[in-house]
Amino acid sequence: MTSQHPSDQNDNLRHKKDAFHLPEGVIYLDGNSLGVLPKHVPGRVADVVTEQWGTSLIRAWNSHSWFDLPLRTGDRIGRLIGAPNGTVVACDSTSVNVFKVLSAALSLRPERKVILSDSGNFPTDLYVAAGLKDLLAKGHELKIVAPEEVEAMLDDQVAAMMLTQVDYRTGRVHDMNDLTRKAHDAGAIAIWDLAHSAGAIEVDLLGAKADFAIGCGYKYLNGGPGAPAFLYVSPDHLDKVSSPLTGWMGHEAPFAFDLDYRPVSGIACMTVGTPAILALSSLHAALDIFEDVDMADIRAKSISLSELFIAEVEARCPQLTLASPRSPSERGSQVSFRFGEGYAVMQALIARGVIGDFRAPDVMRFGFAPLYLSHQDIVDAVAILADILDTGSWDRPEFKTRAKVT
């Protein structure tokens, strides 16, 4: 499998693959779950550990600008999601940030009681929303509808519409511009989860007039396992909201150690506790990869890769059923296929060096990170998949034993 696909010859992103640490013999189709390690990140993190922490010690908060790292990293992410400087901060986890922005959104519409979401939303967002409404105990209702029913359910009772832009199972994409506009027409606040969008597809939060957004740093942004998440607050709301988690990093003068809480102005008001410097340093370094890349080029290659994948699978693996939208304009940077024994097939694939993942009950997910995947990788991966299906080599006990992480 050393040939080159014709589409790779004109790929202006092909040189980026050399910037990543890819194990020999592995075709990685799981960047939608955990990104690949950029080669320069270990050295950068080692410097933070041995030189900054090791030598500067506590002085590094000032001498190496650790204190401002959440804001500096946020601005780098902002460039990839259409957010102006000073509106994004990298901190905490996606779940914690959902709690913060949803609470802030509800405070902007105190007379309304409905949180509208859909059944394609990532479950943690729904869990957090349910927990928050119970905590507030003000009569809020979490209304979960089918994705195609969201627009019809936007009325004068909805306080906040909270959606994941790219469905984690199928890759289906919500129209952010259209739904945000319709939410605003109904007087509601629009919150977008970009966990499967940031770094993979073009996003324009400012242009769409989104009110809030959240997302994670460890998928297409390649920040590493458990990398800090991020959150966005529209410039229209920055002077109106603060975090419901009033920790000292969100205080206007954290080192005055006053006993009363006064939120700092700007996006820093959404920070809470001491930032995780080692994890933030990894994410900040990983974002170097995007500095000379246009998101339009990433999106174009993503579509090319996923279209090739679907064509190859449907030609060679008739046992599988496409679970993703067929139109690339309606998909993110992943493709899912259904198969009754999808878990076992995925484990057999992984054993052969093709790494994707599985989501219950029968969805095999394949993510396409254009910075480190080639068209030849796609052809080679499908050849292995076809062989596994044709020979039935997936039908073995060791491939059917469920691990904790699928």
TrEMBL record:
One of its GO terms (cellular component) is cytoplasm. Pyridoxal 5'-phosphate binds at residues 94-95, 122-125, 164, 193, 196, 218, 248, 274. Pathway: Amino-acid degradation; L-kynurenine degradation; L-alanine and anthranilate from L-kynurenine: step 1/1; Cofactor biosynthesis; NAD(+) biosynthesis; quinolinate from L-kynurenine: step 2/3. GO terms for molecular function: kynureninase activity; pyridoxal phosphate binding. It catalyses: 3-hydroxy-L-kynurenine + H2O = 3-hydroxyanthranilate + L-alanine + H(+); L-kynurenine + H2O = anthranilate + L-alanine + H(+). Catalyzes the cleavage of L-kynurenine (L-Kyn) and L-3-hydroxykynurenine (L-3OHKyn) into anthranilic acid (AA) and 3-hydroxyanthranilic acid (3-OHAA), respectively. This is Kynureninase. Coiled coil: none annotated. GO terms for biological process: anthranilate metabolic process; L-kynurenine catabolic process; L-tryptophan catabolic process to kynurenine; NAD+ biosynthetic process; quinolinate biosynthetic process. Homodimer. InterPro entries: Kynureninase, PyrdxlP-dep_Trfase, PyrdxlP-dep_Trfase_major, PyrdxlP-dep_Trfase_small. Gene3D superfamilies: Aspartate Aminotransferase, domain 1, Type I PLP-dependent aspartate aminotransferase-like (Major domain). It comes from Roseibium album. Belongs to the kynureninase family. Its cofactor is pyridoxal 5'-phosphate. SUPFAM superfamilies: PLP-dependent transferases. Keywords: Hydrolase, Pyridine nucleotide biosynthesis, Pyridoxal phosphate. Its EC number is 3.7.1.3.
